[in-house]
Amino acid sequence: MRLTCPHCGPRDRREFTWSGDAVALARPAREADPAEWDAYLHLRDNPAGATRDLWYHDPCGAFIVADRDTVTHAVHATTLATTLAAKVAAKVAR
Fold first, then answer.
1. Measured distance CA(74)–CA(67) in Å, rounded
2. Beta carbons of 67 and 49 less than 8 angstroms apart
3. Which of 19, 36, 49, 72 has a beta carbon 3.0–4.6 Å from 28's, enabling a disulfide?
C-alpha cells in the first residue's frame, strides 16, 4: 500500500505508523466504571470497506488522514490532519 504525504509525495506504507481511527472519542471520566474504560480502550469498529485512519509519517513528522478501503487496500485520499482539524473548527465556530 502506498500513501501520499502532502509534504513528501507518494510513499511506501513502511514509512508510516498507523495511529488509529480518525474519529474523536469521548474519554471516560477517571472514576468511570471498568466497563466504560474497557469499551473506550478495546471496543472499536473493524469495518470491511471504507474507513478513515490517522497515520504518522516518520520521515517528516506529519500526521495525515487517509480515506481508504480495507477490502481493496485502495487509498482514495490523504489530507494533513491539521487541515481537517481547521475545517472542523471553522464549521463548529459558525
1. 9
2. no
3. 36
> In tens digits, what is the pLDDT along the chain, a chain of 94 residues?
899 999 999 999 999 999 988 877 788 999 999 999 999 888 877 889 999 999 999 999 999 999 999 999 999 999 999 988 787 777 777 7
Asked whether the whole model's pTM tops 0.85, one would answer no
| Those residues with Cβ within 8 angstroms of residue 12's Cβ, 6 or more apart along the chain or in another chain | 2
The domain tally of the chain equals: 1
d(C-alpha 67, C-alpha 52), whole Å: 5
**Terminal C-alpha separation, the chain:** 38
Which letter does DSSP use for residue 71 in this model? Answer: T
Query: Could you give the C-alpha distances from 6 to 10, 80, 93, in angstroms and in order?
Result: 8, 7, 26
CA distance 54 to 66: 6
Cell numbers representing residue 18 in the block: 498507523
Provide the residue range defining the domain that includes 33. Answer: 2-93
